[in-house]
Design brief:
Number of helices: 8
Strand order of the largest sheet: 2-3-1-4
Length: 240
């Protein structure tokens, strides 16, 4: 690739962003960077931040922004001479702004997956905790049921992958992802901005003309009623 290219892929739980990122990076000659891998490496290194990450992961809690950025940004700065595709970061507007401070993204991909598809994928998803390898009983099952293909260690299913927790997870994702997606949206074309204004002005003018027409019709009807009423008032008396 002639010039550096940096892209981020976003998506709700179960959207397959990790698999898509890995395959896309391989197809286009990019480095695949995974926030999950960086977090596991931080935990394995036994650093202070790694210990904090472990404490949050063990409680099935999201790692706070300030810890995520302290772990992620130095690793990304080390990749300054490479093209890459990143999944799992940024998740929040704070993380996105921190990322913008050190590099300019060329592309942001946001996956939009139907709820039923997510539910089916997550209910069949099993994970190897040590490596983060993900299996799906429907389309990517392990060679031996319940065991990791590489290590043979047992697979686990996260409690928040179950159907009863999915709605809350998706609602949380939408709440935190929307500001990030809005941040990365390209600025609107001035002509595109002007067009709605013109349409709104035209609509307001048409509504005003319609209202004026209705008022005029009402006045004409009242005038006609007064004329007719006046005739009925004079005629019965027989006086000129």
């Amino acid at each position: 690739m002639a010039r550096l290219f940096r892209t981020v892929i976003m998506g709700p739980p179960g959207s397959g962003k990790g698999t898509i990122a890995r395959r896309s990076a391989q197809s286009f000659g990019l480095q695949h960077l995974s926030s999950g891998l960086f977090l596991r490496q931080g935990v394995a290194a036994g650093t202070e931040d790694g210990a904090l990450v472990r404490s949050y992961v063990e409680r099935s809690m999201l790692v706070p922004d300030h810890i995520m950025t302290r772990l992620m940004l130095p690793r990304l700065e080390q990749m300054s001479g490479h093209s890459w595709m990143l999944d799992g970061f940024p998740r929040t507007i704070s993380q996105a702004k921190a990322l913008n401070d050190i590099c300019q993204l060329d592309l942001v991909i946001s996956l939009n997956i139907p709820y039923e598809t997510l539910r089916e994928r997550l209910s069949d998803r099993w994970i190897h905790p040590g490596s983060g390898r993900v299996y799906n009983l429907g389309f990517n099952p392990p060679q031996v049921q319940g065991q990791d293909d590489v290590s043979g260690e047992p697979l686990v299913q996260h409690a928040d992958d179950r159907a009863e927790a999915l709605v809350a997870r998706l609602r949380h994702y939408k709440d935190v992802a929307k500001p990030v997606i809005d941040l990365y949206k390209p600025p609107p074309n001035p002509e595109q901005q002007e067009q709605p204004k013109q349409e709104k002005q035209q609509q307001e003018e048409e509504e005003e003309e319609e209202e004026q027409g209705q008022v005029q019709e009402q006045v004409q009807e009242e005038d006609q009623e007064e004329e007719e009423g006046g005739g009925r008032w004079q005629n019965p008396s027989g006086r000129g």
